[in-house]
Amino acid sequence: MNLLLIRHGLAGKPDANAWPDDELRPLTPKGRKTFKHAAKGLRSLGVAPARILASPATRTLETAGILSKACRLPASALHVLSELHHSRSPSMALSALAKKRLPRSLALVGHEPWLGEFLSLLIAGDTRAGLEFAKGGAALVSLDGFAPRAGRLEWLLTQDQLAALA
User: How far is CA 6 from the centre of its chain?
Assistant: First the structure.
């Protein structure tokens, strides 16, 4: 299985006046524009997930929507998975994913530091490897299944590196 991990694009700064519920904080116009270029770069790498799962936060859903359009996926290919929320543990998400029937090519869109910890769990068996995703950055992992140490990191790229490939 190929698993694409993506951190949401550039979002507005946390502001309790503008977004009393931080889950509603959206991507900025620049965040939408720059991630569109990054998504084109992903497509040029031949990365084409059959399904996209995203954290329920607005900024991750917007990022997932941009990816979905770039990959020409139907709206039905995008789903919310609450276990991808940054308040949940990466091991909880791993367990939830292991129980699902999933396609051979999947994308997860989430938050940092959660994504780095999740990637660490997949490739090293615990969450302490110190891996980090830049905003709009992505990693490709080859997986034998959703279990600790079941993955192999193929690449980890920033949004700018992805956009340069477009």
Answer: 3
Task: State residue 157's pLDDT score.
Answer: 98
3-state secondary structure of 21: coil
pLDDT beyond 90 at 95:
yes
Distance CA 162, CA 144 (A): 25
CA distances from 84 to 7, 48, 57, 157 (A): 11, 20, 10, 20
Domain coordinates in residue numbering, the chain:
2-11+21-154
Residue 76 is encoded by which pair of tokens? 């039905």
Considering the domain delimited by 2-11+21-154, tell me its CATH architecture.
Answer: 3-Layer(aba) Sandwich (3.40)
CB distance 132 to 113 below 8 Å:
yes
Structure token digits, residue 96: 């939830």
Q: Which residues pair with 4 in a beta bridge?
A: 107, 140
**What was the pLDDT predicted at 48?**
87
Average pLDDT over residues 53-60: 97
Q: Looking at the predicted structure, is the pLDDT value of residue 47 above 90? A: no
